[in-house]
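Exercise 3.2. Students should predict the tertiary structure of the chain below and write it as C-alpha cells, then compare their answer with the key that follows.

Predict this chain's 3D structure.
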Amino acid sequence: MSTCEALRSMVCMISRLVLWLPVILVHMLVFWSQWVFNNVISDRIFREPQNQLFILVLCNLVLILMMWSYWRTIMTRVKSIPTDFKLDALELRSLMDEETVPESVSVRKLPIKTRNSEGGLKFCTRCRGLKPDRAHHCSICGTCVLKMDHHCPWVNNCVGFHNYKFFCLFLFWTMVYITILVATSLKWFLLFIKGGDLDIGDEGLTMEAISLPLLFIIAIVFGFSVSALGFFHTYLTLRNKTTIDSFRDENFVKPTKRGWDLGWRDNFKSVFGKKPLYWLIPVPSKTGDGVNFPVLTNMNEQILLKASETLLEELEELV
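Answer key:
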C-alpha cells in the first residue's frame, strides 16, 4: 500500500470516528444523569422505601424506552431504493442527455406521482436509479433514502421511512425523562442559587451536591431544544410531511392542494401503525412500503380511500 493510500485510509477512519462523537456524548450525558438520579436525588427526596422504589422504577422504565428508541434509530440501516427503480447505463444517459423517458422505464409502471421542477422524472446519478416519491440522496450516507426527513448527527444516521417512528419516540421519551429530572432537581437548584443548605453534611461541597444544580441546568437546556424539535415533528407527523417537504413544494403530476395529507388520523397511523398497543414502543408498526404514497386529489377519492381502508380493517378482524 502506498503512502497516499495509507494516509487516505487513516483520514477516512478518523472521519468515521468523529461522526460517532455526538452519539458518545449523548450516552455519557444520559448515564451521568441517571447516576445522579439513582444515587443522589432518590435518596434525598423519597425517604420512604416504597416511594423511592416507585420513582426509581418509573424513571428507569422511561430511560429504557428512551434508549431503546435511540438505539433503534441508530441501528436501523438505510435501505437502498428497490431494484425496479434502478437504471442501466443507457437508460441513465437517455434521461441525462435527451431528457426523455426510455420505453424500458415507461413499461415498469412505477408508482411515481411527482416530477422535478422541469417536469421530468427525478433520478440520481450516484445511485443510478429513479428517485421514488419523497426520496432524496444523502451525501453522508452515500445513498438515496426513502421518505428522507434529515440526516441527524446525534444518531449518526439518516432519519427516514424505516426509522422515523423510532426517532419520534426517542424525542417523546426524552421529553418525559427530562421532565422527571427537572421536577426532582428543581428544589436543589433553587437552594443553590439562594445560597441555602444543600444538605451536604460535614464533607463540604462534594461532587454529588454540585451535580444536583448542574443536572437541572443541563436538563433545562436540552429540554427546550428537544421539546421544540418534538413539537415540530408532531406537527409534521399530523400533516404527513417530512422536514424536506416543509421547505419545498412537490410538483405533482395531478395537481392537489392537500399534497400527501390524508387527514391527521391517517397521517398518524402511517407512521405509528393502526394498533395503539405499539404506538409508544419502538417496534415496527408503520404502514406502506416507502415508495408508494396515496394522494387525495379530490373529496370523492378521499371518501373511496376511507371506505376501502375501513373494509380492509374489518376483513383483518375477521381473519
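Discussion points: The chain has a mean pLDDT of 85. The two ends are 62 Å apart (CA to CA).
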